[in-house]
Structures are given as C-alpha cells and as structure tokens.
C-alpha cells in the first residue's frame, strides 16, 4: 500500500491517497451492508443497487459533495483521478447539479488536517449513512501477550 501511495498506480501519474482507499472500501462495504446504501423515503426505505459515493469537499462558498458514480465497480486509479478532478472543479464552482446531487453514501474525511481526530458528520438526506474520518493517532494499546504496543 505504501508503494501505491508514494509512486502512484502502476507507474502512472495518478497518486493514490488514503482517501481513495476509503472511498473504494466504503463502496464495497455498502454492497455487503445494503442498509448503509439506502434512502429514507417518506413511508419506506429504498435500497440502492449502485453505490454512488459522495465525497465532501470544502470550497470558498461552503461544503459540497461531488459524486463518484458506481464507485463499487471502479479501480483505485479511476477513483483517485475522479476525486481529484471533481474536487478541483468544485473549488472553482464549476460542478453541474447532477455531479453533486443524488449520491447514495458520503465520505467526509478531515484526517488530512492532523489535529482533527474525530468529529460528528451530518447525514445528507435522503441518505441513511455518512462516514466521518479523523486523523490517525499513536496510542498505547493493551496486549495480553506482550504488554503494551504502539
């Protein structure tokens, strides 16, 4: 995994990020847990067949969630390229409504800011789920065999 993060995918120019892995893993998890890939409707819950992952992007005018359509069926390099392209266009205010309305699951990652280790994300209606990712922490974890490990 570290090699992919450092060099990009298969020697290509797309550098894979931790967030790209999170988007892909979330999409695959939604296939295994369809309740997480559902919409709350007025009188019923609709399970979605496709996993269209919205990725939270901060822009000068506020938060927007461009969509990686069919993320479950795409490779990491494709997801990475799409996230980068959509995020750049979102920051320029150049997304079309169909590119940020209608996702089935949202990933909100503040881990890159380091000091944010956890937060509460707001679910985007009618979605039933959002994944809030904070930064990694070094902690002592009890281990019965070896005492404590980092």
TrEMBL record:
InterPro entries: 2-oxoacid_DH_actylTfrase, CAT-like_dom_sf, E2/Pdx1. GO terms for cellular component: pyruvate dehydrogenase complex. Gene3D superfamilies: Chloramphenicol acetyltransferase-like domain. One of its GO terms (molecular function) is dihydrolipoyllysine-residue acetyltransferase activity. Residues 13-143 form the 2-oxoacid dehydrogenase acyltransferase catalytic domain. GO terms for biological process: pyruvate decarboxylation to acetyl-CoA. It comes from Cylicostephanus goldi (Nematode worm). This is 2-oxoacid dehydrogenase acyltransferase catalytic domain-containing protein. It comes from the Eukaryota.
